[in-house]
Amino acid sequence: MDKTEILIVGSGPAGLKGALAAAGQGARVTLVERDPFLGGQLVKQTHMFFGSKEHYASERGFKIAEKLGKAVKEDPNINIYENTTVLGYYEDGVLSLEKEGKFSTIKPEALIMATGAQENTLMFPNCDLPSIYGAGAVQTLMNVHGILPGKKVAMLGAGNIGVIVSYQLLQAGVEVLAIIEALPNIGAYHVHASKVRRMGVPIWTSHTVLSAHGRETLEKITVAEIDADFKPLAGTEKELEVDVLCIAVGLTPLTEILFQAGCRMAYIPELGGHVPLCDETLETSVKNIFVAGDVSGIEEASAAMVEGTLAGLKAAYNLGYGRDSYGELVKAARLELDALRRGPAGEKIRSGLERLNLAGKEAS
Amino acid sequence: MCDKTIICRCEDLTAEEIREWIARGYSGFEEIKRVSRIGMGACQGRTCRRHLLNELARAGGISPAEIDLSTFRPPTKPINFAAIAGVDQDAKNS
C-alpha cells in the first residue's frame, strides 16, 4: 500500500489549483487523474474565459490547462498518477486505484475530491439511439480527438454548455438546425447566445424533444412547444431531420466516493443534486476530506480554481503546513470567490449555497 | 422499430417497467434496485439514478430530497478479479 500526505482526485481546474496550493505550503501531494492528460474539462474548452486577470480572462481553457499542468509537473512536492481511476473508499481511510489494468491501494492523511460532474441525460422514446450524445461528449470528440459527430445537429438546452458547443459545431462546419430549450428563457450568457443567433441558429424556448426516430442510428426528432407545466401543446409538433442530437440539460456532481466515505450529503437542486455539507474551506463533515469544483455544486471553472486553492490550503494546514501564511491566503481566496459569485449570474449558486448552509445547520 | 423509453441503459430497463414496479407498491430506491437491477450495471447508476429519483418523487408526491438513495459500494468502474488478486495478466497471457 502507498502512502501520501494529500491525495487529490481529479486534475481539472479545482484539482490542479488544489495541488499547487497544498504543495506551495510544503505538503506532499499525490494527484490522480483518470485521463492520460491533466486538465479535466479545460482541455476541450477552446473559448476564452471572462472576468479578471487572476482568473485567466481572455485566455482559452486548454491554454490554462497547459499552464497549470506544467506548473504541477515542475513542482517537486507533487506526484502525478495519470490513467488512474479511484475505485473506492474504505472505512480505514484507504482508497483503491486502478491504473491500466493494475490494482493498488493508497492511504492519504487528507483527501481532496475534485472529481467534477457528469452530464445529465433525458428520457424520451428512443433516447438510447446511437448519435444521441451529451453536449460535453461532443465537445470532447471534436476538440480533443478531432472527430466530427455528424453533419446536422439539434441541440437540446440553451445554457452555456449548449450554446458554446453549438458555436463550436458551427466553427467546425457542422450545421446546427436549432437550439431547443424547455424553459421560457435562455440560460446562457448573452455574448454566447447572440453569437450563435447572428450565425443563423434559432433558439426555440418553451420547446422540448418528444421522441427520436431512426433504424440503426438517429434520423430525426419530434419537437413540440410546451406550456408552463412542461406539457406539450397539441398541434405544435414538428419533425427535424438530424443525424446528431446533443443533450445539454445540466450536470450532476460525481459524489459516490463521498457517499462511501460517509460524508453528510444534502439534495440541493440549484447545485445539481446531492452535494456534501462543507465549511467555507470546503472541508466536509468528515475531518480531512475536502471537495473542490463541480463535485461540491455545479458552477464554473474560475470558482472551481478558487475552491481548489481553499481546499489545498486547509488540507495542508491540517497537516501542520503553512501555519503563518494560512489566514491571509484563505481570506484573499474567500474574497475572490465572493466576487465571482456576485451579480445576477451568481444568483443560482448563491441560493444553492444558502440552502446547503441551512441543511448543514439542521444536521449539526 | 418499437418506441421504447430506456431508463437504465446498462440493464436495458424501460421507464414503463420501473413505473410498473412503483405501481405495484415498491416505493424505495433500494427495493426497486433489488427487484429490477436498475443502477447495477457497468455505469453503477450514473445515468439512471437521477431518473429513478425523479420517478419515485413524482409517484409519491414528494421531493427527491426525501428519498434515500441505495448504498454506494466500490468499485466505481468495472475491474477484473485478476487485477484485484494481483495476477499479472500480461505474464499469464504470454
Most strands sheet of chain A: 7 strands, mixed
Q: What is the H/E string of chain A?
A: EHEHEEEEEEHEHEHEEEEEEHEEEHHH
If you consult CATH, what is the topology of the largest domain in chain A?
Answer: FAD/NAD(P)-binding domain
Overall pLDDT confidence of chain A: 95
Task: Identify the CATH architecture of chain B.
Answer: Orthogonal Bundle
Number of helices of chain A: 9
Can you give the helix content of chain A as a percent range? 25-40%
Care to give the gist of this entry?
With 364 residues, chain A is of the alpha/beta class.
What does this structure look like?
- The complex is a heterodimer of chains A (364) and B (94).
- Chain A is of the alpha/beta class.
- Chain A has helices at residues 13-24, 61-74, 135-143, 160-171, 190-198, 256-260, 301-318, 326-340, 347-363, and strands spanning 2-9, 29-32, 78-81, 84-89, 95-99, 102-113, 117-119, 132-134, 152-156, 175-180, 203-204, 207-213, 220-225, 238-241, 244-247, 251-253, 265-268, 273-276, 289-291.
- Chain A has nine helices and 19 strands.
- In chain A, strands 1, 2, 3, 4, 5, 6 and 19 form a seven-stranded mixed β-sheet that branches. Chain A has a five-stranded parallel β-sheet with strand order 8-15-9-10-11.
- Chain B has a single domain (6-69, 76-93), classed as Orthogonal Bundle (Arc Repressor Mutant, subunit A).
- Helix content of chain B is 40%, strand content 5%.
- Chain B has five helices and two strands, in the order E-E-H-H-H-H-H.
- A two-stranded antiparallel ribbon of chain B has the order 1-2.
- Chain A binds chain B through residues 85-90, 96, 98, 101-103, 118, 120-121, 123-128, 211, 215, 252, 254, 256-257, 259-260, 266-267, 269, 273-274, and chain B through 1, 3-7, 9, 15, 44, 46-47, 49-51, 63-65, 69, 71-77, 79-80, 83-84, 86, 89.
Describe the structure using short key phrases.
heterodimer, A: 364 residues, alpha/beta, FAD/NAD(P)-binding domain, 2 domains, seven-stranded mixed sheet, five-stranded parallel sheet, 9 helices, B: 94 residues, mainly alpha, Arc Repressor Mutant, subunit A, two-stranded antiparallel ribbon, 5 helices, 2 strands
